[in-house]
Specification:
The chain is built from 16 helices and two strands. With 397 residues, it is mainly alpha-helical. The protein is elongated, with a radius of gyration of 45 Å.
């Protein structure tokens, strides 16, 4: 939801960028109202589907650790409060406050050494490593706890409640009463029941050593110092405007980075689109030139074929006239007599010319399309080449 809040900020800035000419500004839709409307819809979805989650927790064996937290809800008083315990939300309290203006935050503070030991053994429960090594665990604790402390300073004890983990172990009833007072909920002894079972416990072996020689000693010393200071001091009793402004500035910086990254992606896509469009136009122009070239060659070949066909037709006609001429018959009486005696109806005495004429006659019979070859040549002659812009690939920016 934190990333979603950043996207909402981007959308609002776009929707209000042109003053009264923008729909949001023109309708006096404030930034706070815009955020809260999305948060309200998220809240409605979660409340509407609460029974589905409770049913899955009862039926799914993998969620057995959550079953002690499920109690039968009265149909007259359905559950209307929900909790999201995602640790990374420690870093996004401001964004969540924009989505849910009435939201409350609980900072469960635990000694850094115990947290590191638990994180390094997280794979025993989840089947995957939460952090790569001890140094990463110390950094993670510093980053999230520092963000929670900043939220305590920014919004005060009415919005953020620090809950020492040790208090849940040493004095659970008192800790639970303070927590429920903060939430505005009545105390019930049943609330202590789930504390008997630690969910998500990594079951760290007693002899496990979390000290890693490769861990930066300065990081360890800093984390231990912060942990000790927080154990010995109370959270601020008043909200700090300066701290709130600092958190808002951090969110806006993240929004600006996201917007810049999005614009960079859009610019990159636009450059690629122009580049590929130029390549397509270049290929279209190249294809058009090739089509023109091969069309010209085909037109010439059709024309030459037609001329050869006419020439052979003239040869055939000349041979037919020669065959019927009196001069030929007088000059070749033997061949004429032989043709009459053998009752051969073909022509005689033409040698190689006669073979050419006979071969052409046979070929012409097998290719009736020769009759329309001139029409095809005329069609190619009148065909126009598609217009296209000749452009080279765009240079890299």
């Amino acid at each position: 939801m934190a990333d979603f809040a950043v996207n909402i900020e981007i959308c609002y800035q776009i929707g209000a960028a042109r003053g009264n000419r923008s729909i949001l500004s023109g309708m006096d839709i404030s930034r706070e109202e815009f955020f809260a409307s999305f948060g309200q819809k998220i809240n409605d979805l979660i409340i509407d589907h609460r029974e589905d989650l409770e049913k899955r927790r009862r039926e799914d064996p993998s969620m057995v650790d959550f079953r002690p937290f499920i109690s039968s809800a009265s149909t007259s008083e359905p559950k209307m409060r929900w909790v999201d315990g995602t640790p990374e939300y420690s870093l996004h309290v401001y964004a969540l406050r924009q989505l849910f203006p009435e939201s409350l935050f609980i900072h469960v503070l635990r000694n850094v050494r115990d947290v590191v030991r638990s994180m390094l053994n997280f794979d025993r429960v989840a089947g995957f490593q939460l952090v790569a090594n001890g140094e990463e665990a110390y950094k993670y604790w510093l980053r999230t706890v520092s963000a929670c402390v900043k939220a305590e300073q920014a919004y005060g004890p009415r919005v953020v409640h620090r809950l020492p983990y040790a208090a849940l172990i040493d004095n659970p009833e008192s800790a639970m009463r303070e927590l429920l007072d903060f939430l505005g909920e009545p105390y019930s002894a049943k609330c202590l029941g789930p504390l008997a079972l630690r969910i998500n416990s990594s079951n760290v072996p007693a002899d496990f050593k979390s000290d890693d020689p490769a861990t930066d000693p300065a990081i360890v010393e800093q984390a231990q110092r912060v942990s000790t200071e927080l154990d010995e001091t109370e959270q601020p009793s008043q909200a700090s405007r300066a701290a709130a402004d600092e958190m808002e500035a951090g969110f806006r910086e993240r929004y600006l980075q996201a917007a810049k990254h999005e614009q960079q992606l859009l610019d990159q896509i636009a450059r690629q689109e122009r580049h590929y469009t130029a390549e397509v136009e270049q290929y279209k122009s190249q294809i058009a030139r090739q089509e023109q070239h091969y069309t010209s060659l085909l037109r010439k070949q059709l024309s030459n074929t037609r001329r050869l066909s006419h020439l052979l037709e003239d040869v055939e006609d000349a041979a037919r006239r020669l065959r019927a001429s009196r001069r030929w018959k007088l000059a070749n009486p033997g061949a004429t007599l032989k043709a009459k005696l053998s009752h051969w109806k073909g022509s005689t005495g033409y040698g190689h010319l006669e073979k050419i004429v006979n071969a052409y006659s046979k070929w012409r019979t097998e290719h009736p399309e020769i009759a329309s070859i001139q029409d095809e040549a005329n069609e190619l002659q009148s065909r126009t080449i598609p217009k296209g812009t000749i452009a080279g690939p765009e240079s890299n920016e």
